[in-house]
Every structure is written in C-alpha cells, then in structure tokens.
Write a structure and sequence with these properties.
This protein is of the alpha+beta class and about 230 residues long. Helices cover about 15% and strands about 35% of the residues. The strands form two sheets. Strands 2, 3, 4, 5, 6, 7, 8, 9 and 10 form a nine-stranded antiparallel beta sheet that branches. A two-stranded parallel sheet has the order 1-11. Strand 5 (about 85-90) and strand 6 (about 95-100) form a beta hairpin. The chain is elongated and about 75 Å long.
C-alpha cells in the first residue's frame, strides 16, 4: 500500500478549483488600466485558545462540572455554582465560546444600577484576565458590557481581533460571557497576482466558475468597473 499526500505550506487554499475554459470564441476586453506592479500580502494563522477555558472558568467563577458532550469538534459542558444555579458552556470548533445561566432572563437595569455594574464588569474582566490587550469598552442594554479589539491586520505583525461580551444581573452576578477573540499570527508575506496577471489568466480561461460546470457562452466578455449605489 502506498499513500501520497501533497501538503501545501498554508494548507489547501485552492477551494475554488477550476478547469480551463474554452475561450476560442470569446472576445475579452476591458477599459481598465491594469497595473503589473508586483504585490505582496501577509498570511496569518488563526490561533485558538480554548484548551484552558474550562479550567479557568471553573476556578474563577467557582463552578463544577455536571456533564459534557462533544459533537463534530463542538463541546457542550453543563456546570453549576455553589447556589446550584446551572450554566451551559458551549465551545465551538472555530475557537469561540459562550457561558450562560440556563434559567435567567435579562432585564433592563436602571441608570443607577447600570453605573454600579460598569465598575463590577471591569473588575470581573480584570479578574478573569481574558483580554490579551486593552479593548474599546461599551455599555450595552440589559446589563451587557462589551470589549472590542479593532482589526489591525494592516500592521503586518501578530494581532488580536474580536470582542468579549459580559452580561451581569442587577445584583452584579454574571449571567452570560461570550468570547469571540482570536490571535492572528503572522507567518510571512507572499506574492499575489497583479491585476494585469489576473486579466491574462481570464483571457486564457483560467478562472473559477461561478456555478458548478458553468460554461462561458457569451460572445463577448466585457470587464468593467462596477460601483455600488
């Protein structure tokens, strides 16, 4: 038995694989000024931080595990606190997770309570140490507070992106915690096709089909700039 696997540096990125189209009867034209200047773009690897989340939450929030199940890479863990309140922790295969109080229905807090909860939310987030860096803080409705890390991919260096939402009850206890932050690790810069190179490939029928087994049937393929209104 022989098994051959052609591993690519960044995985199998050519998800829109194509077979060359017959362009012998197609006239391709464009009015665009297509530059041929070589261009580079950064390639990042998304790092998932979910291995230690269960231990962290159980320790920091004094929760104990009741049961768990895993389906297709997603994990669901049932937990309880000292007061026997039940929580569900859902961790998906993409690295996002959500902890919720199973029986609580969010209510709108008064302005005075909301101001008190702001301090509590910031203190709790500091205690949990979930934010890799300072994020933009926003107070939302129903006792929900959000920390957002902006997109900084243009910096060509490692960066974090996403948001964390914390929901607090009027008494300051937590009813939900949503974590959607990912680390993006810079691998290296790669060369990408210039507009002129892409145009030449199109002229020779080297492009992904919009529909499976679609054929170029028009007598003329006109490439032009489109503007959204």
């Amino acid at each position: 038995m022989m098994i051959v696997y052609a591993q690519q540096e960044f995985g199998h990125l050519a998800i829109n694989a194509y077979t060359k189209s017959n362009m012998s009867e197609v006239d391709v034209t464009t009015s665009l000024d297509l530059h041929a200047t070589p261009t580079v773009a950064p390639v990042y690897k998304k790092i998932k931080h979910t291995d230690e989340v269960e231990t962290l939450l159980q320790k920091k929030l004094d929760l104990s595990e009741l049961s768990r199940q895993e389906i297709s890479g997603d994990r669901e863990v049932l937990l309880k606190d000292k007061a026997e309140n039940s929580y569900t922790l859902f961790i998906n295969s993409e690295g996002n997770w959500l902890l919720t109080d199973d029986l609580y229905t969010p209510v709108q807090s008064s302005l005075a309570v909301q101001e008190t909860l702001v301090k509590k939310a910031k203190s709790m987030m500091d205690e949990l140490s979930l934010l890799p860096k300072d994020g933009e803080f926003t107070a939302l409705d129903n006792g929900v507070f959000e920390w957002t890390l902006p997109d900084q991919a243009e910096l060509n260096q490692d960066y974090w992106l996403g948001e964390v939402d914390l929901g607090l009850k009027p008494d300051g206890s937590m009813y939900s915690l949503s974590y959607n932050i990912h680390e993006h690790q810079l691998i290296r810069e790669v060369n990408i096709l210039s507009p002129a190179e892409v145009y030449e490939r199109i002229k020779h029928g080297e492009f992904p089909q919009i529909k499976y087994n679609a054929l170029v049937t028009e007598e003329e393929l006109l490439i032009k700039k489109r503007r959204s209104t």
